[in-house]
Amino acid sequence: MLYEVNRLACFVNEYEDDFIKAMMGRSAKVTENEQARKQWEQRENAKRIKALRLELKKSEGQRMDVDTFLETVRRYTNATEITQRMVAELFDHIDVYHAEKRHGVTTQHITIYYNCIGAFSVPDRRKIPAAEITMGTRKGVAVSYSRSRIAV
Predict the structure, then answer these.
(1) Under a CB-based contact definition with an 8 Å cutoff, are residues 90 and 107 in contact?
(2) pLDDT digits (tens, 9 = 90+) for 91-137
């Protein structure tokens, strides 16, 4: 190491101007590389901040949607029939699947997509009072409620 230090000292003493030019060029290159690296990091951070802001805005929007939906659902807590207004306010769409007949019993699965929240399967924590709910059906068709197999 001492040998390299002596060589450096000799070079600096003999070629001081060349050494200064080399160091300035090197310093400028290092500074340029460092600045480019920091600008790249800054762009990456700006992208991340933008993504996080969008995620936050989406989350806030979902919260507002859930609050709106809760307010609407509460209006129909003691409903005894399905009305057109109820359908318009609560349901986005309903997927109806092919009817299947097994052992003489025909079943047909549906998926209900609610406004604001999408598909939701009500957990089976208590029985739903089916006797208090009336639905307009055609003559000779019985409607019964069964738990959904759709994952939330």
Answers:
(1) no
(2) 889 999 998 888 888 888 889 888 878 888 777 766 655 544 545 56
Cβ atoms 110, 95 nearer than 8 A: yes
Six-digit token string for 42: 């800054």
SS (H, E, C) 86-118: HHHHHEEEEEECCCEEECCEEECCEEEEECCCE
The pair of three-digit structure tokens given for residue 152, joined into one six-digit string: 């939330």
Instruction: State if pTM tops 0.85.
Output: no
66 touches 116 (CB < 8 A): yes
Burial 77-94 (b: 16+ CB within 10 A, else e): eeeeeeeeeeeebbeeee
